[in-house]
Amino acid sequence: MNGFEPYPEIGFMQQAWHHLAVFWSFEDINATWVLIGSLLLGMSASVIGAFAFLRKRSLLGDALAHAALPGVMMAFLLSGSRDAEVIFFGALLSSLLGFWIIDWLPKNTKIKPDAALAITLSFFFALGLMLLSYIQTSEMANKSGLDKLLFGQAAAITEDDIQLLIWVTSIVLLTVLVFFDKFRLISFNRLYAKTLGVHVKFYEVLLAIMIVLSVVVGLQLVGVVLMAAILLTPIAAARFWSHQLSTLLILAALFGAISASLGAQISYVAPAMPTGPWIVVSLSILFFISFIFAPQQGLLKRYLDYRQLKQRVVQENILRTLYKLLEREHFQRNHFTLAEITALRSVSTADLTRSIQRLIKKHLISEKSNGYSLSEEGLLKAIKLTRRHRLWESYLSQHADLNSEQVHQQAERIEHILNKEQEEQIVAELMEQLDPHGAPIPKLPSQNLRETKNK
Amino acid sequence: MSNQIPLQVEQLSIRYHHKPVLTDVSFSVPAGKTVAIIGPNGAGKSSLLKGIMGLTPVIQGNALFYGKPLAEKRLTTAYVPQREEIDWDFPIDVMDVVLMGRHGQLKFWQRPSQSDREIAEQALKDLQMWDFRERQISQLSGGQQQRVFLARALAQQASLYLMDEPFAGVDVATEKAIIELFKQLKAKGNTVVCVHHDLNTVSEYYDYVVLINSRLIAAGPTDEVLTQDNLNKTYGGRLSLLNDLTEQMYRSRLDNAHDSD
């Protein structure tokens, strides 16, 4: 043996499937507890974290999680017990103390809120670590496992913990349900809420207490250090999918629940894998997927939109170039070679031929033995574009005092976005119907018809 | 009868750290008029409104609403903040923003009722924003955003409106809508107080003017107060000795150490 064993692939996969089957049959009561715990925490933390995120107090949850540590250690030192309730109240007290300091410092000293957050966070964390090492070198009974609060240990979750989680989750979700309008009001416009006579301070403290509650029950599962991710990543991911706050909260809760169940499964199938970090990694993957693939604001969609716009611009430019050529030939010849087009418009030959193929497919131009010519439909479109280009040029030179080179540059862009109403508005405000280079502003056949009728 | 005066400001002083922003400002505003607060940049116009509304700490003085402190007259007073102070990316639609105006009347657990919705609907229609009721606020133009804010204030059904630069950076349509709103409000006997920037439009839009530059320069009917002499005083630089000495007083904490007899 050289210390290298072949990877037991088939056996491993079978084992994994087996574990997964057991996991979802809910026969292993311990695994089920972990699942329920993670789900509850994932949902409540992501909903309450959403408000911290929207109020731009994202790091508050992180600071409060760190601030809980010394309270846990003090509670253990004073009572000698590790009951879920004792730990919970210790953590609650010191988190609230931390919140009070974070709130007090910027109001009464020159310290800014971000510095107050950082100072409080590290001070409490240091205090917690100090107490932790003291406990670990002491002779106290059942001290083991306290250090797991740093990174969380879901497998060690007890029925007591779950009961507490159920309570806290219900309280948090119910509070959000009842005070949804008020929470949204103070998140959107705090000062305005004050002028309405709404008790802003009361709701702010209520929100903070809800965050503290979620953070404190999350310690056992994901630990002090990773708690911020559970609060913030779900809403950050949801933000790509919707603009409606209620939908956002539901999505965030869903993301929280999905990643929680993923984390719980993975750590059950591969026992060496920790639950908390896996929840956070799954959340980050969900965030990444949202960032790339979200239907409205995703990176992919934005890229595709941009490419479509670019293609449209190239095609419209070709149509306009063909019209210019037509004009130069006094409308006597309607077939032009690639060379004639590129002489007027600098495009790469590859782009040009590709765009021409697309234009042919749309029946805007047709290919003949002696070159390319505008179809009837293409001619209309080309007239419309040229008209808009020259209208904008005239408008700028008559109203904005720009020289003819500057107006051309601008019109090259504006021609692609002008709509009909804007076009009519320009016509109404124009004094003469020639563009600054002396070229006539073309009219669509229907417009010509209308004018001859009027005469 | 003092309780017929919608807004009375008495010796209001505001400072930022040790710098005096406003010193000893007193004036009162008549009912059923439009009132402009005018002054150069940094004169303390927005701070004055915020101080009146209790949004920024006041070191001295107070404001009375129909003869009562603000706490008793919340429901009769509506405030429109400056547009720049808002996070326009916030996930909320137009209707929900306007409904916020009803929350002063609602108990802490209550949601807006059908009649609240009808009031919000009317407010949106008054400002020609009803068609936009389901739009996200991030998708509105600057002028439309301003109209949503005005509709929200209107939904409060107040009798005194305090607005921080409602005309700043708005389009022609919005400007017309605001003027129309002023007329409607005046016709109901309501009072409008605005921080205003554009000197050219003051006499056209407002009946009454308050000129400030760190202190009160003048207050009164527009045709009497908006004189070249007063404008020179307002825009012709601050009384630097007054400001310097006031700042020195704040720094030395003399105002606390010296017993006021």
- What is the residue-mean pLDDT of chain B, rounded to a whole number? 87
Tell me the total number of β-strands of chain A.
2
| Percent range for β-strand residues of chain A | under 5%
Q: What strand order characterises the main sheet of chain B?
A: 5-6-7-3-8-9
Fold-level CATH name of the domain at 2-84 and 159-257 in chain B:
Rossmann fold
* Main sheet overview of chain A: 2 strands, antiparallel
InterPro entries (chain B): AAA+_ATPase, ABC_transporter-like_ATP-bd, ABC_transporter-like_CS, Metal_Ion_Import_ABC, P-loop_NTPase
Organism (chain B): Thiomicrorhabdus marina
GO molecular function, one term (chain B): ATP binding
Keywords (chain B): ATP-binding, Nucleotide-binding, Transport
Could you give a quick summary of the protein structure above?
The complex is a heterodimer of chains A (455) and B (261). With 455 residues, chain A is mainly α. Chain A is 74% helix and 2% strand.
Sequence-ordered SSE layout with sheet pairings:
The complex is a heterodimer of chains A (455) and B (261).
Chain A: H1 9-25, H2 29-54, H3 60-79, H4 84-108, H5 113-137, H6 159-188, H7 190-195, H8 200-238, H9 245-269, H10 275-293, H11 299-328, H12 338-344, H13 349-361, E1 365-368, E2 371-374, H14 376-399, H15 404-414, H16 420-429, H17 445-454
Antiparallel strand pairs in A: 1-2
Helix pairs in contact in A: 2-6, 2-8, 2-9, 3-4, 3-5, 3-8, 4-5, 4-8, 6-8, 8-9, 8-10, 9-10, 11-13, 11-14, 14-15, 14-16
Chain B: E1 7-16, E2 19-29, E3 34-38, H1 45-52, E4 60-64, E5 77-80, H2 94-99, H3 114-126, H4 142-155, E6 160-164, H5 172-187, E7 191-195, H6 202-205, E8 208-212, E9 216-221, H7 222-225, H8 228-235, H9 240-252, H10 254-257
Parallel strand pairs in B: 3-7, 3-8, 5-6, 6-7
Antiparallel strand pairs in B: 1-2, 1-4, 8-9
Helix pairs in contact in B: 3-4, 4-5
